[in-house]
Amino acid sequence: VVFDSAHMGDREHRIYLQRNIETRVGELPPLMFEAWEIFGRYPIFLADGRIAFSGCDYWDVGSVCGIHVVGTEGERPSTATGWPGDIPTDNFGSQILMMSDRGGNWDIYLMRADGSDLRQLTDHPARDGLATASPDGRHIAFLTDRDGTWSIYVMAMDGSGPRRLINLNGGYG
Fold first, then answer.
1. Closest alpha carbon to 40 in 18, 13, 17
2. For a Cys-Cys bond, which of 36, 75, 108, 156 suits 122, CB 3.0-4.6 Å?
3. Closest CA to 100 of 111, 114, 116, 91
4. Between 74 and 105, whose confidence is greater?
């Protein structure tokens, strides 16, 4: 299980990898690169076992914020995007499904783990996000408020044919 937590009390979110279900979070060390703890949010696993997360490259110059990718054995993280509003939400094999506000509102994108082949899958004035791939790899489910209420939609992997599955009661996602 990979997750982020600010349980150390300094308001910094660190990335953790829990390999043993019996290890308690307070006893779990954060992922590291050399002497650097890996700070970030919203980590997801990629198909090759690496982890994508949203954060800043403090291990380098600290000025590039976006999505970074890191191995689980202390490797140097690599930068996939340089937009602070990029958040990974799921993997599609070795590709990253993400949500981003780079177009002025939240939309869904797909890219390779190195940041190449960035494709915008939604382009709607509403907020689209929290995309996840179906197990068969043919569809993407996502949260949106495009009908004036929060709903779960589904679309093809290329972004075509979005349609509402269900409305969420309560008016929030």
1. 13
2. 108
3. 111
4. 105
